[in-house]
Amino acid sequence: MTKIIPSSWQDMKRAVLTVSFVVAAFFLVLGANGASAQSSDPVQTGSVGITGTISTPPPTKGATISLPVNGQKIDKLPITVAGLCPDNLLVKIFKNNVFGGSIQCSAGNFSLKIDLFVGKNDLVAKVYDALDQPGPNSNSVSITFANDIATTPSRVTLTSNYAKRGANPNETLNWPIILSGGTGPYAFNINWGDGTTPDLFTKQSPGVTGLKHIYRQPGVYNIIAKVGDASGVTAFLQIVGITNGPVSKDASNKLVGSTGNRDTNGTTTIHKTLVLWWPVITILPFMLVAFWLGKRYALYVLKHKA
Predict the structure, then answer these.
(1) CA–CA separation, 276 vs 62, rounded Å?
(2) What is the mean pLDDT of residues 225-251?
(3) 64-269, superfamily in CATH?
(4) Could you read off the pLDDT of 177-230 as tens digits, one per residue?
(5) Distance between CA atoms of residues 88 and 80, nearest Å
(6) Which residues share a beta bridge with 51?
């Protein structure tokens, strides 16, 4: 095998630089490909985008129910539940530990309408952050509902396994709600909170009903679902729809936007852009060693040629 010896220091320098740049390019490509495999949307110029969920502490401050008052007797439905809350958190109202409705806290206040069970209802408000982490419970308010309708056997009710669901603008938001009790047929009235015409439809029997809607603009929307059965008894459910986009407020100081990206289950994913420096740090020792070996080899060649 023929041994190739550089004819001059300049030739050796060029050879070492070539090898160094090849090694550097290899590690840079390897690093970019590894990061791209972790990123679902690496679209930022000049950096590698990584998508992930950032863990944050749960809320430390809860809501306070100021309306209705403890011991109040109710004979008309729905009722308004209102009070104070940490801004931008989701407020869920529970009646006897059953989900009764939800709303996004705005300007430190919440107010929503809920249905009630017959007899005693213990109301508690719970706040949740964007990652669905709960904060402390509110004060408990005990009220009683009783009237002629309350004595109707198998009274119609509406509920849902979701307090909040989301979709991207111009994509279909799917929301299953659960209808039980009452006497069919049932008449539904769904107000989606975006100024569009309410959805009106009928259903012959109770069970799970899939609601569908397309929001055109980003926002936080209060959805109000009503249903009446054949006997004229009605049920009521208020929930929160989310469409991806920046937070803003309208003229009435109500939230009309949201932060982060939410999937159809309401889960929030927070996106961060991160510049990866580790490929450069990794190749730096290789470059220094290559230059040192090149210099030593060049001195060796020059010494022996002399």
Answers:
(1) 39
(2) 81
(3) Immunoglobulins (2.60.40.10)
(4) 999 999 999 999 999 999 999 999 999 999 999 999 999 999 999 999 999 999
(5) 20
(6) 271
CA distances, 223 to each of 15, 71, 294 (Å): 69, 29, 72
- Angstrom distance (rounded) from CA 197 to CA 212: 13
Residue ranges per domain, the chain?
Answer: 9-52+274-305, 64-269
Q: Cα–Cα distance between 95 and 104 in angstroms, integer?
A: 18
- Reading the block at residue 260, the tokens are 């982060």
C-alpha to C-alpha distances, 175 to 49, 111, 190, 226, 242, nearest whole angstrom: 32, 22, 11, 14, 12
Q: Which amino acid belongs to residue 283? A: I
Count of residues in the chain: 306
Q: How many Cα atoms occupy the beta-carbon half-sphere of 128 within 13 Å?
A: 18
3-class SS letters over 14-57:
HHHHHHHHHHHHHHHHHHHHHHHHHCCCCCCCCCEEEECCCCCC
Q: The pTM is what? A: 0.64
